[in-house]
Amino acid sequence: MQTQGCTGPRHVMAAPVPMPAARLPVLRIAPSKGWVALKLRELWEYRELLYFLVWRDVKVRYKQTALGAAWAIIQPFFTMVVFSLFFGQLAKIPSDGVPYPIFSYAALVPWMFFAHGMSQATSKLVGSADLVKKVYFPRLAIPIAAVLSGIVDFALAFLVLLGMMLYYSVIPTFNALWLPLLLLLAFTTSLGVGLWLSAMNVQYHDVQYTVPFLTQFWLFATPIAYPSSLLPEPWHTLYGLNPMVGVVEGFRWALLGTDTAPGPVIAFSACIALALLISGGFYFRRMEKTFADVV
Amino acid sequence: MGDIALRVEDLSKQYRIGSSREAYKTLRDTFTDVVVSSFRRAGKLLHGRSGRAPELGETFWALKDVSFEIKRGEVVGIIGYNGAGKSTLLKILSRITEPTEGYADIYGRVGSLLEVGTGFHPELTGRENLYLNGAILGMKRVEITRKFDEIVAFAEIERFIDTPVKHYSSGMYMRLAFAVAAHLEPEILLVDEVLAVGDARFQKKCLNKMQDVGQQGRTVLFVSHNMQAITRLCQRAILLDGGTAVQDGPSHQVVSSYLTSGIRTTGYREWPDSPKAPGGEVARLRSVRTCTENGQITDVVDIRCPLFIEMEYDVLRSGYILLPYYDIYNGEGLSIFSTLDVDPEWRQRPRPKGRWISIVEIPGNLLAEGTHVLAPGLSTLNPPVRQFQENEALAFHVVDSLEGNSARGDWAGKVDGVIRPLLKWRTEFSSDLSGSTIRAGKATVYRE
Asked: DSSP secondary-structure letter at A94?
């Protein structure tokens, strides 16, 4: 038996054995420097794991809580009730010609999906420390799964929205066909921010605590309780710098037929969201190599 | 042959002491770090010191210039003390963390098992966790479905498969977790200390399963503190120490030198300072030695000659019936036997205070060749309390020379077994091959 060199570090190098069929290594593990590729193909290969992570999140959330799926509805619904009372009834905030409750609820449904995804994505990576330290898989799967798992809540809350539309006899237009794309925009924004925050959260756990703050601030920076038509024009388009403006305005336009044609605002929002997602992805990948050592 | 599964070349991993000790930093810590370190730097400039004081962000090498190759189908054990770099090596090879220098080439699908039950969620049922854990370990859903029944049967939890695992006993939990892991089928398997689960019977089952894996021609890299498992499962072992590979060879050799590396090789050891000696208020061990028939202290003994093991101890409180004993292990950590004092002189009698000596004679032609490790101990009989036991107190080597009158006879090759008694043999001619009767009542034994 040949005992391959471990007595000295140079031992193996000294004797390169010619192999019968020189196979290429399937995988080379070496230090990486600086910015690295996103490796989306590998992520695709791990799609089953992604599915299971989403499935676990959803399952556990509904098993652990007494009210289970009801939470998905309670949160946006009661927020809508509070908004309707204070902003609709008392402050008499205009609502683009639709009843205020449905005006705010149509915005709250995608907003909740976004906010939930962002906070979950941020905390999930640190919360999955045991996984990150013990198993290899593309780490991007964790924030992606965290955001995706909000889809179920979104669907439930959306059903209530449909019920409210029935109640207020609001007939959706053909523009409703744009909804999947608008949801994708919300997903992109949520994941984009989530990637930045989750990677930073590994280094500084403070980030996690700033998320509720950020969410609250962002909620009022988005036309949820009020219509964006309150703003005069140059500012109105610039408002699209907040990608959630495009999402919320788009939802109202597609479902309730408000005349806030999202045109330039949506284009702005989409660009910003995409920029957030791509930069977030690369930042995340760059920080990724330190996760297992630091988390 | 020559088909390589894994090549590791000058692999090194550096950790910053700060970041490995602290779980995480808060922003405030970073600010303080910046402030403190700039003050230090300023201080250093002022005092003109080059400074031996530990700096913030000091680094150490968890792994340094480790190189080796593993062929397809080899089962290799990685051993070493805690902090020797074993886990770091496996973490790098399973891509959990990146190396700082060097590289590793992997030829084949890798499965790593650094922990059993990774990702298990207490709220989910056994069935759900099985799928989840399988996916985390890199199994495809169809693969899990195909092996489902086999895994459940292996874990022996058929009745509870649809119960949330939070209601499982810890044994059931570990069995399920290991069962999933044991059914991984990668070409290269990296395993870290996961066999220490369940009861002894289940551990044995796991070991057998691992052995099967090895025999199926898969490449396995196996970290363990269980030296018996290492010698049983691996043909080859690599000993890591302080982040470097210090020995690489047949597993029984490497294991043996690992076990004896931290032990004094002299046949004598004493504890001159009474309060620090092993023991307590009743008795303390003062010295141990291994001697030849002539009373000469030795750590090398001829397999044919008797060996005398002596321990000296102080009895500090009188009135107890004492029971001295020795545990003897071989170099691979296997317990060979324990021997207890049966000398009738002080056997049933409470002993007065004083210095005592207990000697046992280990006859020749009993222990096998190789390193043996000695643990002297002393118990009181009533109450049955161990007063001291000094593990790895001494180590000695048994040598079997080729003079023909030991148990190996004229055979110069390897002789198996943990003891090597010289037994009585009788070999006689029974009949020639044309005749066919074998004398009734006499068995003829042949030597291999």
From this structure: -
Please indicate, yes or no, whether residues B205 and B154 belong to a single structural domain of this protein. yes
User: Model ipTM?
Assistant: 0.79
- Residues B135 and B179 reside in one and the same domain: yes
Contact A28 B136 (CB under 8 A): no
pTM to 2 decimals?
A: 0.70
| H or E element that contains B219 | strand B219-223
Q: CB of A22 within 8 Å of any CB in chain B?
A: no
Quote the number of domains for chain B: 3
Would you state the pLDDT for residue A14?
Answer: 34
Domain end, chosen from B261, B289, B318, is at: B261
Written as one string, the DSSP assignment of B3-71 is -EEEEEEEEEEEEEHHHHHSS-B-HHHHHHHHHHHHHHHHHHHHHT----SPPTT-EEEEEEEEEEEEE
Distance from CA of B446 to the nearest CA of A (A): 30
Q: Does A39 touch chain B (CB under 8 A)?
A: no
CA distance B263 to chain A (A): 22
pLDDT tens column, A93-140 = 888 888 899 999 999 999 999 999 999 999 988 888 888 888 888 999
* Residues of chain A numbered 107-146 and touching chain B (CB < 8 Å): 126, 130-137
Query: Which residues span the domain enclosing B30?
Result: 15-61
Q: Mark whether B388 and B343 lie in a shared domain.
A: yes
Please classify residue B144 by burial: count the beta carbons closer than 10 Å to its beta carbon, then call 0-12 exposed, 13-18 middle and 19+ buried: buried
Residues B250, A293: C-beta atoms closer than 8 Å:
no
Could you say which DSSP state residue B317 is in?
A: S
